[in-house]
Amino acid sequence: MFHQLPSLNAIKAFESAARLSSFKDAANELNVTPTAISHQIRTLEDSLKVRLFERKTRAVTLTKEGELLAASANQSLQDLLSTVNQLKGSPQTFTISTTNSFAAMWLVPKLAHFQQRYPDIDIQIRAEESIIDMEHDRRVDMAIRYGEPPKQLETKTLIHQPLIQESIGFFATPDYWKKHNENLSEAVFFCTQWKNPNLPNLGIEETIKSIVANTQPHIRYFNDENLTAQAALSGQGIAIISQLAVANSIKNGWLMQGTDKMARSITGLHYYLVMPKRLKTNQAAIHFKEWLLLQ
């Protein structure tokens, strides 16, 4: 029945090279030489009588036929690995990509609850600011992104699911508020400048200027919300930051929201889920998505 199928080693070599867009990286992943990967793929192409990769000087890219086989190979190997892990009692690894701040200040503190509920799913987090190509990068199973989800929530290959719309407020230590609440002209404000240039302007600087009347406010910027929060936690100033990012600090009494005119909130952007359609029936993806929506 399956005698016409290529060898499993050839499929593994091809899938790895397709996912990583590199014969060298595939060789490192599979503990073989790049020559061995190249030979396996060449043999596979000869047996199928199609070209799977366009070979360039410093990179390889999939042909249309290669993209078709890559999707099928990845799904088949994922299913096989899931079954093998189930038989061995090993946890299924599921990799999430998200921003550093969301990982550190929201996802990681809550993750123990998910792991207790689903001990057979091993969640791996890739905290990074770069945007992963979810259609082609199979090192990541799911991404939680910051911004505005696309109007078309479902495309040919991806599913987008809005999770949380943030509310941005003014937060500082209790001592800092005591010293500066009456004289905000001497206060220091910390804002986050996101690396993604496509995010819309929320008018935070204008809001600060409208509050601190008749003087130029002292505003300092970080490119990571973690640093914005840490600056406020160390008593250096007032962080204009998502309530999601400081929820734990508020709960412990380390930070508090301002009062009077500093109690205002700014409607922020969304955190939303991006998942390849090929994982639509994956049990780990289903469980993690359902868990996120309940938080």
UniProtKB/TrEMBL annotation:
Record flagged with keyword Glycoprotein: no
Record-level Gene Ontology MF annotations: DNA binding; DNA-binding transcription factor activity
UniProt entry keywords in alphabetical sequence: DNA-binding, Transcription, Transcription regulation
UniProt keyword Transcription present: yes
Family: Belongs to the LysR transcriptional regulatory family.
Protein's recorded name: Glycine cleavage system transcriptional activator
Source organism of this protein record: Marinomonas spartinae
Domain HTH lysR-type residue range list: 6-63
InterPro entries cross-referenced by the UniProt entry: LysR-type_TF_proteobact-type (IPR058163), LysR_HTH_N (IPR000847), LysR_subst-bd (IPR005119), WH-like_DNA-bd_sf (IPR036388), WH_DNA-bd_sf (IPR036390)
Highest classification ranks of the organism: Bacteria, Pseudomonadati, Pseudomonadota, Gammaproteobacteria, Oceanospirillales
Top-level taxon of origin: Bacteria
Matching Gene3D superfamilies: Periplasmic binding protein-like II, Winged helix-like DNA-binding domain superfamily/Winged helix DNA-binding domain
Gene behind this protein: gcvA_9
